[in-house]
Amino acid sequence: MITLIISLTFIALACWIIYLIKRTTPNSNNRYQTLFQSSPSALIELDENCNIVGWNTNAQNTFGWSESEVIGQPILELIVPLKDREHVRTALLKALKKGKSDSKNFNITKKKKEIFCEWHNSRIDYEHPGILCTARDITELTSHVSTLTHQACHDPLTGVTNRAVMDDRLHHAIDRAQRADSKIVLYFIDLNDFKIINDRYGHEVGDKVLITVAAALRSCLRNSDTISRFGGDEFIIIVEDIEGEEHIESVLNAIEFAIAEPIELEDGTSLTAKASIGMAIYPDDATDADSLIKAADVAMYLRKKTKSKKPRAKAASRKKPPIAQELPLYPDSHPL
User: Are 43 and 119 within 8 A, CB to CB?
Assistant: First the structure.
């Protein structure tokens, strides 16, 4: 909301400046130059070929070049990186043809620094048509918004997605699977005896275990897979586009291997994670998000209690867990 208000204020100011400039005639050039140079925004005037013909003080402050250094130069080649040139060119041509355009893109300063700017472009007509560009450096604002967005979507300790994001992704995954007639596998992971780790070694070590396990799980998955911290010592992994039982088993093996990686403490103690893993498949075991999570949770719980080695239980009975594995979460050098 704050970003929207700032952007609207910026655009309103730009429109006011452009309105005044459009009312300015060649006979009042001094007034035009005063208004142009004193603008709190970076103003750049272009001819119809997108060459720079005007460059105010704040444009120099934003991009680094003085007016004498830029007059006559093509703006695209001067301050727009190659990756954004086509996008900016399209925006400028739109302003020439339709009167105005807006864009957000990266720019390059004289010191070769890349910044992110918000642009408002408007056609101006004197003896020849041209474009008045109003630019604002929003690099810090964008970075701040990105930080807030990341914090809202990720677990602050482990950095994996939080429960809300996982729930949203699971609903979308089910929608895609339903349309494509494909399957999803959801793994429910619980770190056993985690309280013992906290009690014996302290919460700092407990946090290290969670962070290390989360990083190990993330490293063994595809970019398209989702890993989420579901609770204190619980994680959920969502894998789409399942290609068969071998695919399911290979993902499970990768998860097991990742969790089993030793965790080295500063005092030389080596911990090895102990976890129970339950699994449920859409649509075999459940057809909605909540039921799929519950099915995997039940599978994990039953596997932990019954010590069953069967890979999956029949979906209809739910008397035994679909899949689970256990790995030790005890110090290698100091058994509990």
Answer: no
Residue 136 — pLDDT band, cuts 50, 70, 90?
very high
Residue closest to 275 by CA, chosen among 310, 235, 215: 235
Distance (Å, rounded) from C-alpha 85 to C-alpha 79?
A: 9
Element counts in the chain: helices (H) and strands (E): 12, 11
For 74-129, write each residue's pLDDT tens digit: 999 999 999 999 999 999 999 999 999 999 999 999 999 999 999 999 999 877 89
Cβ neighbours, 10 Å, residue 79: 26
- What 3 state SS string does 267-304 have? CCCEECCCEEEEEEEECCCCCCHHHHHHHHHHHHHHHH
CB within 8 A of 16, min separation 6: which ones?
Answer: none
Which residue in the list 155, 225, 233, 285 is annotated as catalytic?
A: 233
Tokens of 19: 């309105």
- State yes or no: pLDDT of 228 exceeds 90: yes
> Is 233 known to be catalytic?
yes
DSSP string for residues in 15-78? HHHHHHHHH--GGGHHHHHHHHHH-SSEEEEEETTSBEEEE-HHHHHHH---HHHHTTSBHHHH
Spatial separation of the C-alpha atoms in residues 200 and 267, rounded to whole Å: 14
Name 167's Cβ contacts closer than 8 Å, sequence gap at least 6.
Answer: 289
Q: CATH fold of 154-306, please? A: Alpha-Beta Plaits (3.30.70)
Residue 115, token pair as written in the block: 């910044």
Q: What residue ranges do the domains of the chain occupy? A: 2-143, 154-306
pTM of the model: 0.62
- Could you say which of 1.10.443.10, 1.10.600.10, 1.10.12.10, 3.30.450.20 is the CATH number of the domain covering 2-143? 3.30.450.20
Q: What is d(CA 191, CA 197) in angstroms, rounded to the nearest whole number?
A: 10
